Amino acid sequence: MRPYIKEFFTHVDICVMCVLLVVGWTVILPHANEGTIWLALVIGMAGYALSEYMIHRFLFHMKPPKHPLLLAMLRRLHYDHHIYPNELHLLFLPVWYSLPIMAGPTFIAYVVTQDTVLTVAFVTGVISFLLYYEWTHYVAHRPIKPITPWGRRMKKVHLWHHYKSEHYWYGVTNPLFDVILNTFRDEQQVEKSETARNLEGKADSRY
């Protein structure tokens, strides 16, 4: 297990997020006795949990755009990951994507709270859940047996998404939004998709 932990935490995109996480906790810990700090932290985590599903389903699985730059971005962010699901550098969200995508919610959090520490707490919650997502996703694609039954279950579900059908099981850390939005299915009742490993090939499909 130790080599995989080292492999995970030495990846540049993970390193950057870990540094930001430490900075965030350094700012908010002196205010740990304030309930609003923990509320902001939880809201940030919940917000990322929702965005995990929504972005995966509606952005990463959108029909291939015609613009070559957008197509290249989606290939790096997700299309190529379905072609090469165990390729290490494709497992992680690049910081050139993660940091800008967090900028909007961060700005909104500051406008709403007018408080720098609360905003930092919100962003720290986002980054905390992002790293949880990254680890869960990493474990799903590496030869690692998760310690908990929950972890083993989520690994199995995510691999269904890659090898059975890309039209279901978008949640990586949890199946909540799949259940709510009707994209969770009994694996035995789902037909194997011909485009699970080739998202660009579904341009003419109903999805």
UniProtKB/TrEMBL annotation:
Keywords: Endoplasmic reticulum, Fatty acid biosynthesis, Fatty acid metabolism, Lipid biosynthesis, Lipid metabolism, Membrane, Metal-binding, Oxidoreductase, Transmembrane, Transmembrane helix, Zinc. This is Sterol desaturase family protein. It holds the Pfam family FA_hydroxylase. It is found in: Endoplasmic reticulum membrane. It is a multi-pass membrane protein. PANTHER family: FATTY ACID 2-HYDROXYLASE (PTHR12863:SF1), FATTY ACID HYDROXYLASE (PTHR12863). Its cofactor is Zn(2+). It comes from Paenibacillus oleatilyticus. Residues 42-183 form the Fatty acid hydroxylase domain. The chain crosses the membrane at residues 12-31, 37-55, 90-111, 117-135.
